[in-house]
Amino acid sequence: MKWQSFSGKQKAYIISISLVIVILLWSFFSAKILTSQLNRKELAEGGDNKQAVVEGVILTETKNQVKYWELYAENGTYNSKDDVASLNDVNANFYKDNQVSMSIQSSQGAYDSRNGTITLFDDTYVVIKDGLTLSADKLVWSGSNKPIFAYGHVIITKGAEFMASADEIEISAEYDNIKIKGNTTSKVFNRSGNGK
């Protein structure tokens, strides 16, 4: 078939279809070139990194219907690349034998879900059920069977009987053994509170 044998209407259809095919092919190859550059850029910049901003955060760990800890925060952000939640205005409760064994209040904190570590910093205040209180710049909890570490301007008290300040304090998982480290000052008072 020769071009001259087609009618004017047929020629218009052929030209129109040819133009549509050319435009589609041009669009397809242009899109492929553009998106391949974007994909490379996303991979170079850590494209898998997702962040979420959350108000009213509640995190908890429960195993076999036994609650180990729960953490509340006014707000926070979650970074999927590092699996870390950064938290603000934190309150946390830690449990032993289905009872609150330790409560913590802190201005800021972080929960690392990869290793299960809770780090609290800035105005951190701790109350342990046997009357032990602690304030520190930073507190690290790595699990219910691991010691708790407090760092920076640590002050620990037990009622009117004991007071210590230190650079670092390690509290055993059962709260029955305290190691005071660094520059320390300790005071032990008699039960009436008027003597050393």
Describe this structure in words.
With 196 residues, the protein is of the alpha+beta class. The chain folds into 2 domains: 42 residues; 138 residues, Lipopolysaccharide (LPS) transport protein A like domain (lipopolysaccharide transport protein A fold). Strands 1, 2, 3, 4, 5, 6, 7, 8, 9 and 10 form a 10-stranded antiparallel beta sheet that branches. The radius of gyration is 31 Å and the shape is rod-shaped.
CATH topology of the largest domain: lipopolysaccharide transport protein A fold
Shape: rod-shaped
The CATH architecture term of the largest domain is: Sandwich
Question: Which value, in Å, is the CA radius of gyration?
Answer: 31 Å
User: How many separate helices?
Assistant: 1
Structural class: alpha+beta
Helix content: 10-25%
What attributes does this structure have?
about 200 residues; alpha+beta; lipopolysaccharide transport protein A fold; ten-stranded antiparallel sheet; 1 helix
Fold blueprint:
Layout: H1 8-44, E1 51-63, E2 66-79, E3 84-96, E4 99-112, E5 117-128, E6 132-141, E7 148-158, E8 162-171, E9 178-181, E10 185-188
Antiparallel strand pairs: 1-2, 2-3, 3-4, 4-5, 5-6, 6-7, 7-8, 8-9, 8-10
Give a quick precis of the structure.
The protein contains one helix and ten strands. With 196 residues, it is of the alpha+beta class.
